[in-house]
């Protein structure tokens, strides 16, 4: 460890590690008692963001715990620091053949580089740019190259047994539309049916166009997903064996596609057809290095690149709405060759990104209590970090030039994101990242005291009744704000 890191570590121990025996505010202790969450299952820290005074409150702050989605603070701040807020993901497009009279005599190659938000609208723009080159027909194949990330082989059902939840979609160097389908249900009371609209269209997948309506127009909606009796057992057919409650009105059901490996091929093929393109071959997975124009030693030049929004904008989606798939894309980008932060690997991987982040932590945060990382999104049973470590990260970020970018990415209490419905404090009184898993509830970020001081606040419960601790966290926020 460098001298600078050692000094930072000692300073952090002095600032964040004091007052471990402090009594909790009475209102916080009472709320935890009502929730039946024991004090030994909670870690709490309230400390000045400037880091110039002992903590106002420190309870079990040195104990590593599961932080759930609060771990995204580590990933997003590290990415801002290592990649820069203006970093963009580039998706290059290549032609492996000549274009004559509107026809590409060869293959079109799209190479993914980890773009976290290559949604359907941007895929449409990409394919329209291909047509802008004068290409309406391709005699060969559309080749999709996602080799920039090592494959993630984990079972999407392994985390919580819900493989079709969009948050369980695996990261991908060519992540198209989060590998998800949006199903919209629109009741037609006169016809006693609800129309079903699917986005995007997936080539070769039959999608049911309507379902019967049931129940009265008034009353509670209930479990409309259960009432539909959806059958996703056949990836080539989406069926509903039930009905749609009329009282539900219009609803949108996001769903991870049941056969993720075929999603990109189906989505690109269907969209190319929809915009009038013709294809002599197929849409398939492959590698740019295998194309004829790449040659044995030289890489071809792309005809254009589709650039993403900058990182500073991406992390707003990640933190405000706790987007797990986007967070994992950013985490893997830390070890992407050419990103400026990688460790010399040929493809990005979770293991390489953990190594990058551990090294960054030692150099920038300066302590031996680095977090235990898995996928960087908090969607994990194994990730661990202490409130003390999180507090130090927030203090370092607050004193850095990147503070505005990180803080503006966090949900604002009572205003937006996952805190839009929060009523526990003055509107706009805090910028906080939330976290929630089975047996985990978490909150971390910046609180604006009435005195004008700004605090770092961390509150995490690891217990079977963790979600019942939310009122205690609200009480802690109110206490932190009322500091004068």
Write out key terms for the chains shown:
484 residues, alpha/beta, Beta-lactamase, D-tyrosyl-trna(Tyr) Deacylase, Chain: A, 7-stranded mixed sheet, 20 strands, 22% strand, disordered N terminus
Tell me what you see in this structure:
The protein is α/β, with parallel strands linked by helices and 484 residues long. The chain has three domains: 255 residues, DD-peptidase/beta-lactamase superfamily (Beta-lactamase); 113 residues, D-Ala-D-Ala carboxypeptidase C, peptidase S13 (D-tyrosyl-trna(Tyr) Deacylase, Chain: A, 3-Layer(bba) Sandwich); 80 residues, no CATH class. It is built from twelve helices and 20 strands. Strands 3, 4, 5, 6, 15, 16 and 17 form a seven-stranded mixed beta sheet that branches. Strands 2-1-20-19-18 form a five-stranded antiparallel beta sheet, sandwiched between helices. Strands 13-10-8-7-14 form a five-stranded mixed beta sheet. Strand 18 and strand 19 form a beta hairpin. Helix 2 packs antiparallel against helix 12, helix 3 packs antiparallel against helix 7 and helix 3 packs parallel to helix 8. The longest helix has 16 residues. The two termini are 40 Å apart. The N terminus is likely disordered.
């Amino acid at each position: 460890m460098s001298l600078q890191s050692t000094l930072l570590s000692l300073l952090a121990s002095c600032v964040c590690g004091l007052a471990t025996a402090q009594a909790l505010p009475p209102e916080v202790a009472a709320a935890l008692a009502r929730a039946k969450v024991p004090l030994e299952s909670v870690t709490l820290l309230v400390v000045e963001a400037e880091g110039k005074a002992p903590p106002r409150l420190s309870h079990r702050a040195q104990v590593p715990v599961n932080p759930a989605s609060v771990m995204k603070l580590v990933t997003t701040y590290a990415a801002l620091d290592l990649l820069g807020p203006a970093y963009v993901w580039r998706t290059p497009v290549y032609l492996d053949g000549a274009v004559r009279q509107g026809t590409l005599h060869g293959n079109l190659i799209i190479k993914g580089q980890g773009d976290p938000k290559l949604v359907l609208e941007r895929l449409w723009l990409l394919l329209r740019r291909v047509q802008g080159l004068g290409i309406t027909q391709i005699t060969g194949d559309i080749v999709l190259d996602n080799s920039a990330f090592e494959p993630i082989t984990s079972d999407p059902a392994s985390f919580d047994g819900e493989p079709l939840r969009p948050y369980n979609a695996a990261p991908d160097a060519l992540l198209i539309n989060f590998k998800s389908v949006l199903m919209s249900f629109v009741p037609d009371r006169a016809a006693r049916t609800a129309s079903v609209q699917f986005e995007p269209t997936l080539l070769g997948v039959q999608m049911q166009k309507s379902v019967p309506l049931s129940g009265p127009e008034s009353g509670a909606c209930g479990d409309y997903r259960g009432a539909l009796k959806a059958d996703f057992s056949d990836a080539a057919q989406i069926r509903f064996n039930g009905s749609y409650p009329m009282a539900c009105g219009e609803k949108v059901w996001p769903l991870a596609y049941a056969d993720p490996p075929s999603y990109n091929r189906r989505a690109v093929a269907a969209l190319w057809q929809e915009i009038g393109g013709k294809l002599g071959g197929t849409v398939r997975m492959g590698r740019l290095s295998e194309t004829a124009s790449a040659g044995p030693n030289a890489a071809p030049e792309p005809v254009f690149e589709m650039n993403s929004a900058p990182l500073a904008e991406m992390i707003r989606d990640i933190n405000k709405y706790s987007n797990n798939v986007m967070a994992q894309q950013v985490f893997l980008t830390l070890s992407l060759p050419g990103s400026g932060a990688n460790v010399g690997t040929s493809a990005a991987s979770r293991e390489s990104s953990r190594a990058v982040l551990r090294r960054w932590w030692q150099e920038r945060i300066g302590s031996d209590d680095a977090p235990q990382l898995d996928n960087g999104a908090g969607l994990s049973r194994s990730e661990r970090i202490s409130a003390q470590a999180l507090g130090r990260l927030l203090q370092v970020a607050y004193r850095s030039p990147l503070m505005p970018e990180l803080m503006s990415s966090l949900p604002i209490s009572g205003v937006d994101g996952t805190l839009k419905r929060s009523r526990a404090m003055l509107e706009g009184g805090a910028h906080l990242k939330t976290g929630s898993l089975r047996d985990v509830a978490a909150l971390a970020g910046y609180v604006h005291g009435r005195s004008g001081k700004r605090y770092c606040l961390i509150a995490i419960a690891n217990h079977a009744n963790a979600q019942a601790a939310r009122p205690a966290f609200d009480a802690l926020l109110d206490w932190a704000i009322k500091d004068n």
